[in-house]
Amino acid sequence: MPLEANAPPGYIERYIHSEIYKMYPAVNSIVHSHASAAVPYRILDTSTPVYDVAEHYQPDEIRDLLIRSVPLGQALASSFSKRHSGLTGPDHAVVFMRGHGSRVVPSSIEDCIFRANYTKENALIQTTSLGLRNAYHNFDEAQIQHLHYDEIEGTKTMGEATCHRPWGLQLRGVEDATPYGKE
Ligand SMILES: [Zn+2]
User: Fold this and answer.
1) d(CA 134, ligand 1 centre) in Å
2) Please, what is the Cα angle at 149 between 52 and 17, to 5 degrees?
3) What ranges do the domains of the chain cover?
4) In whole numbers, what is the pLDDT of the chain averaged over residues?
5) 102 CA to middle of ligand 1, Å?
6) How far apart are CA 71 and CA 10, in angstroms?
7) Known InterPro entries for this protein (predicted)?
8) DSSP line for 104-149
9) Residue 32 CA, ligand 1 centroid: distance in Å
10) Which residues contact 121 (CB under 8 A, 6 or more apart)?
C-alpha cells in the first residue's frame, strides 16, 4: 500500500517483495535479479529450490512469467522454505525462478547484495567449469566438484563476516551514478 494516496502505480512485480516480507519477519532485504548467468541453473539438480510460475497461474491470468498477484507472490515466498508455520526466516537464501531469474533474501542489506552478486559470479564459474570439463572428458563423465557441506557452512560464516568490505564501494558507486547521486 503506497504511503501517498496519489502515488503512481508501483512496479507490477512488487508482490514478490510484499509476500516474502509478510511470510518471513526476519527478512529485511530482497534482491530480485534477472542475471542471465544464473537463469540456466534451474535445469540442474541442485539443492537450490526452483519456483515455476506455470504451476501457480490462475486460469485467466496473463502468462508472461511476471509475479503479478498476491497468490503468485505467496507461492514464490513459500518456495524458500519447506515448513509452513512458525516461520521467522526462510530455509534457503536463494530461489531460482524458471525462465526468469533469481531471488535472494538474507537478513541484512549488505549480505543480500553480496549474495546476489555471488549468485551470478558462482553461476559463471560453474558454467565455465562445466564447459572446460566437457571439453576434456566425455559428457557422461562430467562432474563438478562442489563444496563439501562443512565448507558451505564455513564460507557462509566467512561471507557474512566480510560482506561489509565491498559495501562501501558499492554504495559510493550508486551515490556517484546519476540518477541516484549528484550531477
Ligand atoms: Zn522479474
Assistant:
1) 32
2) 35
3) 14-108
4) 83
5) 8
6) 17
7) Aldolase_II/adducin_N, Aldolase_II/adducin_N_sf
8) E--SSHHHHHHHHHHHHHHHHHHHHHHHHHHHHS-GGG----PPPH
9) 6
10) none
Joined grid coordinates for residue 124: 559463471
Which fold would CATH assign to domain 14-108? L-fuculose-1-phosphate Aldolase (3.40.225)
**CA 96 – CA 90 distance, rounded (Å):** 14
Q: Which DSSP letter does residue 74 get?
A: H
Contact 27, 89 (CB under 8 A): yes
Q: How far apart are CA 177 and CA 78, in angstroms?
A: 36
Closest by alpha carbon to 29, among 160, 182, 169, 180? 160
d(CA 66, CA 77) in angstroms, rounded, equals 14
Q: Grid coordinates standing for 65?
A: 512469467
Q: Which residue has the higher pLDDT, 140 or 179?
A: 179
**C-alpha cell belonging to residue 139:** 559428457
What local confidence, expressed as pLDDT, does residue 16 receive?
92
Known active-site residue 153: no
Q: Verify cis geometry, omega within 30 degrees of 0, for the bond prior to 2.
A: no
Q: Distance from the CA of 88 to the center of ligand 1, in angstroms?
A: 25
Integer CA distances (angstroms), 72 to 12, 67, 118, in order: 12, 6, 26
